[in-house]
Amino acid sequence: MVQKMLWSLPKLISPRGAGLGNEVFPWAKAYLGARALRLKLVAPPWRVNPRRYDQELETGALDSIKYFALRGLPAVDINAEMIESAQRFDYFEAVTALAPTILAQKRISVLHSSGMHGGYLGIRRSRAFLRREIFGAAGAMTAVEEMDGSSDVGVRIGVHIRGGDFSSTKLVRPAVFNEQLPLDWYVDVVQSLAKSLSVPSFVYLATDTPSPVINAALTVAGCPPRGLALDSVGDLAVLARCDVIISSVSSFSMLAIFLSDASYVWHEDQLGEADGWLSIWGHEALNSGGGRTAQAMKQQSDGEVRVRRGVAQGKVPKWRQGFLNQLEYRARARRSFDDLIFFGVTEGDRRS
User: Fold this and answer.
1) To 10 degrees, what angle do helices 232-241 and 138-148 make?
2) What angle is formed at CA 290 by the lines to CA 287 and CA 239, rounded to 5 degrees?
3) Of the residues 220, 253, 306, 329, which has the maximum number of CB atoms within 10 A of its CB?
4) Cβ distance 152 to 202 under 8 Å?
5) How far is it, in rounded angstroms, from Cα 206 to Cα 236?
6) Comparing C-alpha atoms, which of 99, 109, 125, 124 is closest to residue 37?
7) Is the per-residue pLDDT at 281 higher than 90?
8) E strand spans, the chain
9) What is the DSSP string of 126-147?
């Protein structure tokens, strides 16, 4: 009797699971693999994670029991080398191309073990799934409801300040991760951006090191930061709902950016430089991320006028008018009195 493959499982980044910004990669790949191979998705065992994401994402103990029961059975291991052999950057497309080889093996499940290989571009198809799973949790829903219920019209500036287990530094260096960015940089970026905008702005803060000093430093036009959530998924939802994200150099900030359509600001000194272009992973010339960045640099020579979603800012922020216009447009588009379904009005051909 030929054994039928049934399950698609993520391999945890660490034995008990790492932060959500890291574990989202195998989770997304297991989802995409399940879609490509028509298998059943097995969620990560959030209950054993030290951060207790099971409480935030509202999953039960049975999910974790099911994961470990299946994890102990023989599985087809889809690792980074296997994905690269498919010569597809999109993870769904790669697994689809490998499907005959994978399904020919007599295993009950597949294990997605390539970790963060391929980055966010490789799992871009999973955004709708991850938004549903993460932003559908109670903490995220409460945070979003609070923002949507606000009558304030202005640019929402989301700020993520990562401290905690990150080492402290005053010198931000290219390609160095897991270090705190100086508070002065956040303050200079927020205050200069608020002054450059022609509409009001409001700061929403997500941080694991809250303090009166930070609140005072990020107060804009007499308004202290708002939108503090009760858990990490709520913080993600707040950041993703903002018009622009002032990010830390962390996977959590990147996840908020990935799940949102917001513009964002990255610390210029942390970016690597090649041929006059700045990038996060361009220095990794030997891996797929570096290769994609090289392609992106070549595309810049086509003369097309670009409005950048992500911008770099150093110690003395300078804002391009096109970037400011993007943020102001998003803020103005939220005005209820300009929106027909909210009892608003608009112009028409009959108006003379």
Assistant:
1) 30
2) 110
3) 253
4) yes
5) 8
6) 99
7) no
8) 7-10, 40-41, 75-78, 109-112, 155-161, 201-207, 244-246, 263-267, 272-274, 277-279, 310-313
9) GHHHHHHHHHTSHHHHHHHHHH
Report how far Cα 199 is from the mean position of its chain's Cα atoms.
Answer: 27
Helix (H) or strand (E) holding 324: helix 321-332
State the amino acid at position 131 in one-letter form. R
Residue pLDDT, tens place only, 99-142: 999 999 989 999 999 999 999 999 999 999 999 999 999 999 99
Helices and strands (DSSP H and E) totals, the chain: 14, 11
Q: Is 6 helix (H, G, I), strand (E, B) or coil?
A: coil
CA neighbor of 210 nearest in space, from 244, 161, 159: 161
Amino acid at 71: R
Radius of gyration of the chain (CA): 22
Nearest to 41 by CA among 95, 85, 106: 95
Q: Report d(CA 296, CA 39) in Å as an integer.
A: 34
Q: Are strands 272-274 and 75-78 parallel, antiparallel or unpaired?
A: unpaired
CA-to-CA distance for 114 and 32, rounded, in angstroms? 13
Strand 272-274, strand 277-279: pairing: antiparallel
Instruction: Please state, in angstroms and rounded to a whole number, the distance separating the CA atoms of residues 293 and 286.
Output: 11
User: Which of helix, strand or coil describes residue 220?
Assistant: strand
| Lookup: tokens for 155 | 């640019």
What predicted TM-score, i.e. pTM, was given to this entire model? 0.92
Mean pLDDT check: name the lowest of 39-48, 102-111, 141-150.
Answer: 141-150
